[in-house]
Amino acid sequence: MLNKKIIQHILALFFPHILAKKFYYELNNPKIRKITTTESKIFSKASEKIRKFNHLDINTYHWPGEKGKILIIHGWEGRATNFESIIKELVKEGFDVSIFDAPSHGTSAKSNTTMKDFGEFVQHLLKTTNFDYVITHSFGAVPCSFTLSESHINLKKIVFIAPPDHFTDWINDVSRLIGINQKIIDITLEKFKKDYNMNPYEMSVSKFIKKVKNISGLIIHGEKDKITPLERAINVNKNWQGSNLEIIPDIGHFKILDSKKTISEILKYLKN
């Protein structure tokens, strides 16, 4: 029986536009991951609310506190509960914490959604609520950095955990993992350009964050991150004036969120 990569290779040779359409659809429609019992504990203590945004119903969670307001943004195909360990410690320290399940992610209503919907909701939150701090994981750094580059947002500090950089690199990283060739990538990027009215070749966290001059940042990245390679964070750090990079040894893209070292670095940074 032919495996998936062989089938994709055949499709790429004879039906590239069909495969590109499928790849584009998969990139824009997040896979739903099951919640674990461990992840759900702290969320039973949160104030949960469904927010209406455009045509979407988005689940939001809030833990009140006195030390400063934090917005947490999960990554593509992530969910709020990925931050269980981090949220638990932030709440214990007295911070006011808000997080959400992005459109069609986690417990939010499932609908036709895109990365653009995700990004526009982040922009809406940052522009309408006075947060002191933002913490992101993976793709969450993209809408955050874009919004900060385009609008004057009064934040004190930002934490990027395992951030990507160039949008095209992210597409290439995903393609490498699932065996998509360059011809399919090129067709897909052209469709992004048309549908999003933005040039994907010019989209990058390092480019966006370079425009941010008055907000310091902490970048935390796993040494063994196979989904978003370490060099992405290194380049973001080089282009972000006032940022520091902490590399966590022997850890990858998702386990970094439960790392005691990650949590201690975040708390130390926010409290100083």
Give the key terms:
8 strands; eight-stranded mixed β-sheet; 18% strand; Rossmann fold; 11 helices; alpha/beta; 272 residues
- Rounded to an integer, what's the Rg over CA atoms? 18 Å
Characterize the biggest β-sheet. Answer: 8 strands, mixed
SS-derived structural category: alpha/beta
What is the percent of helical residues?
40-55%
Shape: globular
Number of helices: 11
| Number of DSSP-assigned strands | 8
Strand order of the largest sheet: 1-2-4-3-5-6-7-8
The CATH architecture of the domain at 48-165 and 204-271 = 3-Layer(aba) Sandwich
Describe this structure in words.
This protein is an alpha/beta fold and 272 residues long. It has a domain at 48-165 and 204-271: Alpha/Beta hydrolase fold, catalytic domain (Rossmann fold, 3-Layer(aba) Sandwich), CATH 3.40.50.1820. The chain contains 11 helices and 8 strands. It has an 8-stranded mixed sheet with strand order 1-2-4-3-5-6-7-8, sandwiched between helices. The N and C termini lie far apart (58 Å).
